[in-house]
């Protein structure tokens, strides 16, 4: 995965990211549902998440943000009228980010995914909500987290998942640390960086081994996977989309490359991503 300074948002690209993030908000058709904030305490952690009105919805839709990031990254989707009409939308803060224990670092895709899964399943039970089908969308580092999330099982709630990987690292052979990752690992550098940046950099140290571990645990997974990647993504190589085709050809995996697009496709290609989600939800 190619990065500059840290993992997903190098310093010199941060203004560009914010521009895309704010500029693309107008593509969303504002819905009328109130977005509410929830926090659920688990045995060893807590997960904060945002949700729309989940009553009488056809399907479940979960978004998992990248690194760094937070639930607010997906407000344009959460507030969209068309998505609200079809989905119960749940958008958590991953552990160490947003309002989910943001003072701690949890650089492990498995712990991250299982905490989110436990919290959201508890929420569904608490609200007496049942869904036969669900879509989990993960952007960048959130992609492998969403993949582990879809692999989790709960005997009391059976949901058939589809997994959308947006600009996501999956191939462990493409992961490597750079000098700026090592620099950001020094205490005196961490002292001047925001917690979210420190946590993001620490996630890079374990991502390669986490992806190798994920490969060994795939087994004969049956849920559908859709890899969507920008053709010109310089932060996470588009070559990641071919990993499953090469190493796990039995997986139900589809690929879509977006021409002339970069790493920030959830915002720069909002309408196209939204269309894919709506289409997959109707199947």
From TrEMBL:
Keyword Hydrolase attributed: yes
InterPro entries, per database record: AB_hydrolase_1 (IPR000073), AB_hydrolase_fold (IPR029058), Meta-cleavage_hydrolase (IPR052370), Peptidase_S33 (IPR002410)
Pfam families for this protein: Abhydrolase_1
Positions of the AB hydrolase-1 domain: 60-158
Gene Ontology BP term (one): proteolysis
Single annotated GO MF: peptidase activity
Keyword set includes Repressor: no
Keyword terms: Hydrolase
Gene3D superfamilies, per the entry: alpha/beta hydrolase
Similarity comment: family membership: Belongs to the peptidase S33 family.
Protein name: Alpha/beta hydrolase family protein
């Amino acid at each position: 995965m190619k990065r500059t300074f840290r993992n997903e948002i190098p310093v010199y690209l941060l203004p560009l990211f914010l521009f895309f993030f704010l500029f693309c908000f107008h593509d969303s058709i504002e819905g009328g549902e109130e977005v509410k904030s929830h926090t659920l305490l688990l045995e060893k952690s807590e997960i904060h998440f945002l949700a729309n009105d989940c009553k009488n919805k056809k399907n479940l839709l979960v978004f998992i943000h990248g690194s760094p990031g937070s639930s607010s990254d997906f407000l344009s989707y959460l507030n969209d009228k068309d998505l609200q009409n079809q989905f119960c939308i749940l958008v958590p803060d991953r552990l160490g980010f947003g309002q989910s224990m943001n003072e701690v670092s949890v650089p492990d895709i498995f712990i991250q995914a299982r905490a989110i899964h436990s919290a959201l399943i508890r929420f569904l039970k608490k609200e007496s909500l049942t869904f036969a089908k669900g879509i989990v969308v993960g952007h960048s580092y959130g992609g492998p987290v969403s993949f582990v999330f879809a692999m989790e099982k709960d005997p009391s709630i059976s949901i058939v998942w589809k997994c959308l990987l947006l600009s996501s690292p999956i191939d462990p052979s493409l992961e490597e640390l750079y000098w700026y990752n090592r620099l950001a690992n020094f205490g005196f550098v961490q002292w001047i960086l925001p917690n979210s940046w420190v946590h993001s950099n620490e996630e890079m140290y374990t991502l390669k081994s986490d992806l190798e571990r994920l490969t060994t645990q795939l087994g004969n997974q049956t849920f559908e996977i859709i890899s969507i990647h920008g053709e010109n993504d310089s932060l996470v190589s588009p070559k990641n989309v071919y990993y499953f085709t090469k190493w796990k050809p039995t997986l139900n995996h589809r690929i879509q490359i977006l021409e002339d697009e970069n790493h920030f496709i959830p915002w720069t290609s909002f309408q196209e991503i939204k269309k894919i989600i709506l289409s997959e939800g109707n199947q």
